[in-house]
Task: inverse folding
């Protein structure tokens, strides 16, 4: 065995992963994230940083196209996984296969040679694709000439009246820690979002994993309240993990997601409660986090859970999670109407453009993460449509 | 006592720096693995090595119309600057050089990081890379002045800009003890110049990696290794500035330098995980209205004591 192939084997262990989720793929995403965490595979936020692209669920044609573009940006050696079911028996072999593919450099040489050949025959196919979903490259403008077949950025007055380049940057649908199926088309100057438009991917609104217990109860199935509260707590921790990750606090985000995984794996409440208390305390105590979230994306109408800024929404989320955690052992039958009790995620996405205009990219990401709309719920997309 | 210019120091410097950088990366991986409940977290210590191997095996890639020259210049500049800055950092009594303006040399090298990060962000021809570049410039404006005043405070205490003399001036009492504000500001600026932990916004995942969104393969390896090296070198520089250099009982001076550096570096990596990222649109104001006055007051106190 040569040095290079030894190196390839060494490098193929625990590769960095970029996870993409299709509408309706939440259950698969959660299972994938749990397995990745157990095995110590790191999630990363860009195609350049990842070795494995994991697609959770079944993407529609529009998302499929975006995923293909992102896949083209992943340098070899690389592997793509299509996870369509949440069962471990389905996921574990896929991961093993990916590790195997990464270690096999010969395979990548052959693939590369084929690609080069196709490129020579087919001309420059990549030429002129100016943006990659979720990784918005140079935008196009109205005038200013062309470079390498791309339009140069146009200019416009910014909020201080300075002439600045206007970049068209698309956020989503393939973006780490981003609501599934959401696309925000922005016009940016510097790092400030001047205008934002919201779109959704095909397949949204088809029913959410997070509201399954209530839907089942409505259909007359016997559901214990504790099981529904478990789902609710997990949902809160999922949103919390996302928000903390966008807030650049990987430690707390990791703890929130670990707890979420253990909740969904039916760990007993008495083992989970102290861990939640610890996490909740450290988040509540963080003055830096409060300082960074204050005054972001203020909302004054809508439901009580949403009122206030991003910091208020974070604290409401913690209260919601704590309440749900206290009810994990409740054996009484579930009242379907109880769903309305402020489940996060029912935010209409039509709220977003108004909140994002004028925010810088960092703030805009935090605003979206603090609302974390669940586009699998018909309510989230209804107002927009 | 001091031995600047020892030939073997030149030979020893790169491996020591690489060792410290790798140690910091491994320590951070282990902490991350432990925090997410991964069994056998200690095994994660090898993850940075795997990442390095992975990046070595990958071809570099750029997007359409990227400015390769600027990108490469920035990527190479980062580790180069760390190495150049390390030349004035003493390991015990030995250092590559001990110029009369050692502190200024270190400062000048570290300012070149501004250029490096900006070049990488700009050269990528990516909106997210550009945002990362902007973020680092804003960060530079926030931390650089407090950082420079912290350096000058230590120099004032020793009445010399020569790093070796600053270390020797602390035979009686460490500067960290009677200049705590300057020491704290210096530690914060270490995180800022290596864009690490709470000051990692220029390369944060909310912008898909910011300045480092596009580089892959060896380009990425240079950038990331340079970042760890900067963190290690800046931590090591706090030892002669504030922690008495190589002074200590029993162990030889070089060992004390290493031990103190490891403690500062390990502590910073550990502490950085306990804070969310700070955004410059909020932090810059605090840096100018709180940090600068605080460190100036510290300097005044030191100035009066020295007089």
Result:
């Amino acid at each position: 065995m040569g040095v290079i192939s030894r190196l390839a084997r060494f490098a193929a262990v625990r590769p960095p992963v970029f996870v993409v989720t299709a509408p309706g793929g939440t259950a698969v995403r959660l299972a994938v994230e749990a397995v990745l965490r157990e095995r110590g595979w790191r999630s990363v936020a860009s195609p350049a940083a990842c070795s494995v692209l994991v697609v959770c669920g079944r993407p529609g044609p529009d998302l499929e196209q975006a995923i293909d573009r992102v896949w083209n940006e992943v340098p070899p050696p690389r592997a793509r996984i299509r996870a369509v079911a949440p069962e471990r028996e389905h996921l574990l072999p896929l991961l093993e296969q990916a590790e195997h593919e990464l270690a096999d450099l010969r395979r990548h040489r052959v693939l590369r040679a084929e690609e080069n050949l196709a490129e020579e025959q087919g001309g420059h196919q990549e030429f002129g694709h100016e943006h990659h979903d979720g990784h918005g490259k140079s935008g196009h403008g109205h005038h200013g000439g062309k470079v390498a077949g791309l339009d140069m950025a146009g200019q416009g007055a910014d909020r201080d009246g300075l002439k600045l380049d206007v970049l068209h940057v698309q956020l989503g649908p393939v973006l780490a820690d981003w609501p599934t199926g959401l696309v925000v088309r922005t016009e940016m100057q510097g790092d400030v979002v001047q205008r934002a438009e919201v779109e959704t991917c095909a397949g949204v609104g088809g029913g959410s994993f997070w509201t399954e217990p209530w839907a089942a109860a409505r259909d007359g199935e016997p559901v214990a309240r504790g099981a529904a509260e478990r789902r609710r707590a997990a949902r809160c921790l999922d949103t919390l993990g996302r928000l903390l990750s966008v807030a650049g606090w990987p430690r707390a985000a990791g703890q929130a997601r670990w707890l979420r995984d253990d909740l969904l794996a039916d760990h007993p409440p008495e083992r989970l409660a102290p861990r939640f208390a610890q996490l909740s305390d450290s988040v509540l105590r963080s003055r830096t986090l409060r300082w960074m979230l204050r005054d972001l994306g203020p909302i004054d109408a809508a439901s009580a859970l949403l009122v206030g800024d991003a910091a208020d929404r974070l604290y409401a989320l913690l209260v919601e999670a704590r309440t749900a955690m206290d009810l994990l052992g409740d054996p009484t039958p579930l009242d379907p109407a109880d769903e309305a009790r402020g489940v996060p995620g029912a935010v209409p996405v039509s709220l977003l453009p108004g909140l994002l205009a004028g925010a810088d990219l960092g703030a805009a990401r935090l605003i979206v993460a603090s609302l974390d709309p669940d586009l699998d719920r018909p309510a989230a997309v209804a107002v927009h449509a | 006592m001091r031995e600047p210019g020892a030939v073997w120091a030149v030979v020893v410097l790169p491996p020591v720096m690489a060792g410290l950088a790798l140690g910091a990366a491994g320590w951070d991986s282990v902490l991350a693995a432990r925090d997410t409940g991964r069994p056998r977290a200690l095994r994660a210590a090898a993850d940075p090595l795997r990442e390095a191997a992975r990046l070595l095996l990958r071809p570099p890639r750029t997007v359409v119309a990227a400015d390769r020259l600027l990108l490469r210049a920035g990527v190479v500049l980062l580790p180069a600057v760390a190495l150049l800055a390390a030349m004035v950092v003493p390991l015990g009594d030995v250092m590559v050089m001990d110029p009369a303006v050692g502190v200024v040399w270190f400062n000048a090298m570290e300012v070149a990081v501004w250029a490096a990060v900006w070049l990488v962000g700009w050269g990528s021809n990516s909106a997210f890379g550009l945002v990362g570049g902007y973020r680092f410039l804003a960060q530079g404006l926030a931390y650089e002045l407090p950082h420079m005043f912290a350096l000058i405070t230590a120099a004032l205490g020793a009445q010399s800009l020569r790093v070796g003399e600053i270390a020797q001036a602390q035979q009686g009492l460490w500067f960290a003890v009677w200049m705590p504000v300057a020491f704290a500001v210096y530690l914060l600026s270490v995180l800022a110049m290596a864009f690490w932990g709470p000051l990692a916004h220029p390369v944060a995942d909310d912008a898909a990696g910011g300045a480092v969104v596009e580089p892959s393969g060896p380009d990425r390896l240079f950038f990331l290794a340079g970042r760890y090296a900067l963190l290690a070198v800046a931590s090591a520089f706090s030892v002669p500035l504030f922690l008495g250099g190589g002074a200590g009982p029993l162990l030889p001076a070089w060992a004390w330098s290493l031990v103190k550096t490891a403690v500062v570096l390990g502590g910073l990596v550990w502490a950085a995980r306990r804070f969310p990222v700070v955004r410059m649109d909020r932090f810059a104001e605090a840096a100018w209205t709180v940090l600068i006055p605080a460190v100036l007051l510290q300097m005044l106190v030191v100035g009066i004591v020295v007089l």
